[in-house]
Amino acid sequence: MKWDEFSQWGEKISQWAAAYHTDLRDRPVRAQTAQGDIAAALTTAPPEDGEAMETIMADFERIVMPGITHWQHPRFFAYFPANAAPPSMLADMLVSTIAAQCMLWQTSPAATEMEGVMVDWLRQALDLPEGFSGVIQDSASSATLSAVLTMRERATNWRGNREGLSAMGRLRIYCSDQVHSSIDRACWVAGIGQENLVKIGAGSSGHAYEMDTSALAAQIKADRTAGYTPAGIIAITGGTGIGAWDFLSDVLKVAKDEELYTHLDAAWAGSAMICPEFRAKYWGGVEGFDSIVFNPHKWLGAQFDCSVQFLRDPSQQLNTLKIEPEYLKTSGEAVTNYSEWTIPLGRRFRALKLWFLIRSYGLEGLRNRIRNHVSWAEELCEVLRAKEPFEIVTEPILSIFSFRCPGDDAVQQRLVDAINDDGRIYITQGMHEGRKVIRFQVGQFDCTRDDVMLAGDVITEIWEQLT
Fold first, then answer.
1. CA pair distance 405, 415, nearest whole angstrom
2. pTM to 2 decimals?
């Protein structure tokens, strides 16, 4: 492709993108294809000769689009959102065009220096104290793995990377039983093992479903007596299942008493902390954590992938991850090389989409969206509560709640599947206290109150069809 053709097709694809978002409400939210349909439509061998873009784009429409679940659909109420606000998409187009590999300061000074400033913009937006710095990761999973590796190295006196873990004793990490599965995977990858990830049951204070810190403290003491080496504690604000949140100050008290490294997973709910009114309840004590992660690519509107990890003392993570062969050394004055803060060496220019996004909407524009989502979720919860067949299982935590229809777990799944096959909305199931529940979360960037209220009509209508 020549550059004049690139320009023509770039314009056509931009027009296609605008049209796609304009009529997105008319599409079914979840892909309606069957297993194997897309693979069957693709040629089994690569072409020997190049093909025209007209042909490729026609096949894109014919083959790819029927198999896409539309995460930007305003009635996407499943999982958590992966929002892509238009300014962040435009920024990523520029990043793709420049195609810089931003592993070191010298490989793209603008990327490194903007990353530092954007992390600080978000530090201010979340009301974290001065002194916190941080890095943009690809996902919360990578940030959590970085934190777990730091816990491991700190607990082994920085010997694990050099000597391996075979002679280091059995390390243990502690968390709530409401954590995301990425915590489990981080312990696998770090060599700590599933059996040494100790999950503490939830307490009973209101509807927080918080980690029982009395049980946490007792477990750590018992483990020390039994010869284990406690390494760190992972807390959550806005767990994936039902939005559970730990009492951060209570967790930190245990961590301080036991001299343990702490990580806070606020991947989804962290975005809501740009709203001052939510901080007192969900964010008190956050300044004491060693590591904090939240995903602007979820609720804030940054095109995936973009996860920010804040660090109270980055030297500990640098001591864990930094490796500097001769070909990566930077001559001259000391600079920040963010590849030393993360597991991947290669790095995209992720800060640019944050710059475009925040400047385009302003913090108040982003706050208003989040406030609306929380309000609409609460309103829909009350609508379903008033409908006799439905039981609200977990109350709204920010913009997520869960419910059940009459019947056993199989009936819950049947209702979820029927709703998703219908196509007007998309929801997912979860488990809570041994029972399957139906999750509902509001967070798609362009959804409206009408979209959320329509969900209540669809849920009721499909339930009546099943009965």
1. 8
2. 0.93
